[in-house]
């Protein structure tokens, strides 16, 4: 939570910097750095010191600018953070470039070495560009040209890295889409199989019901026919008995006549 508050003040400070509200920018960036984070190392807030120094630069306050640039370098040295050391030394080189060429050249050189050791090509290129401009204004065109070529090579490397990252992102996206499509196909196939099994089950249930109904109908018809047959037999028996009675009566009448 403390880190989030610090980052919020850093964001506010950056916004105020863009708006030209330098006092508010310095206040928020200073609060960000002083608050810091109870879990993160202080070097995480190195950029706040650099931004404070740049705000003082815009206020034309070189004493405060130098104070915060020096503080940023001391912080980077304390944590042996090569990239942060290179950035602080670059800013110090820029600071001294118009007043003390010897100090500026020393800081630029140290910045270049630290950037090289950190393998941070972006910072390395920025320092090379600054050295090219520095030597150009000193009329040392040979060194200016050397650092211009170095900056171009580094720029080409950055573009190559960006291209490789872009290609990797496309490959990753392609693989992701491929995997997504495969999963969707499997899901569709699985859904089809489930529906197929449901259809089989429903058909089996329906056939069973039909067979049950058919069996009941057959049984019912058989029962009716059996009952009707029994009734018919009973009727026939009754008729036969009546016939015997009538025949007996006729025979009796005939005998009486005789």
List strands and helices in order, with pairings.
Elements: H1 2-19, H2 22-35, H3 46-58, H4 62-78, H5 82-96, H6 101-118, H7 121-137, H8 141-257
Helix pairs in contact: 1-2, 2-3, 3-4, 4-5, 5-6, 5-7, 6-7, 7-8
Overview of this protein structure:
With 258 residues, the protein is mainly alpha-helical. The protein has helices spanning 2-19, 22-35, 46-58, 62-78, 82-96, 101-118, 121-137, 141-257. The relative contact order is 0.04.
The backbone outline, from C-alpha atoms, is rod-shaped
Question: What is the string of SSEs from the N terminus onward?
Answer: HHHHHHHH
Our Rg estimate from Cα atoms comes to 51 Å
Count of runs of 4 or more consecutive helical residues: 8
Mean pLDDT: 85
Q: What percentage of amino acids are in beta strands?
A: under 5%
Low-pLDDT residue intervals, each spanning 5 or more residues:
none
Summarize this entry quickly:
This protein has 8 helices and no strands.
Structural features:
single chain, mainly alpha
């Amino acid at each position: 939570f403390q880190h989030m508050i610090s980052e919020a003040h850093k964001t506010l400070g950056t916004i105020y910097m863009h708006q030209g509200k330098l006092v508010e920018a310095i206040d928020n960036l200073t609060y960000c750095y002083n608050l810091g984070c109870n879990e993160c190392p202080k070097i995480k807030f190195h950029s706040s010191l650099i931004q404070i120094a740049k705000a003082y630069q815009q206020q034309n306050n070189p004493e405060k600018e130098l104070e915060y640039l020096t503080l940023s370098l001391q912080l980077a040295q304390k944590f042996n953070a090569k990239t942060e050391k290179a950035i602080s030394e670059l800013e110090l080189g820029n600071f001294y470039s118009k007043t003390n060429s010897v100090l500026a050249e020393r800081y630029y050189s140290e910045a270049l070495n630290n950037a090289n050791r950190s393998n941070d090509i972006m910072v390395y290129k920025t320092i090379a560009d600054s050295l090219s401009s520095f030597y150009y204004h000193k009329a040392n065109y040979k060194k200016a040209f050397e650092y211009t070529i170095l900056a171009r090579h580094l720029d080409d490397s950055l573009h190559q890295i960006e291209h490789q990252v872009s290609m990797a992102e496309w490959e990753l996206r392609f693989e992701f889409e491929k995997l997504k499509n495969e999963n969707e196909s499997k899901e569709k196939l699985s859904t089809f199989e489930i529906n197929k099994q449901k259809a089989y089950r429903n058909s089996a249930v329906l056939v069973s019901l039909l067979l049950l109904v058919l069996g009941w109908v057959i049984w019912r018809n058989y029962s009716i026919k059996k009952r009707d047959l029994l009734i018919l037999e009973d009727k026939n028996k009754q008729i036969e008995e009546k016939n015997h009675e009538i025949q007996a009566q006729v025979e009796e009448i005939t005998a009486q006549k005789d």
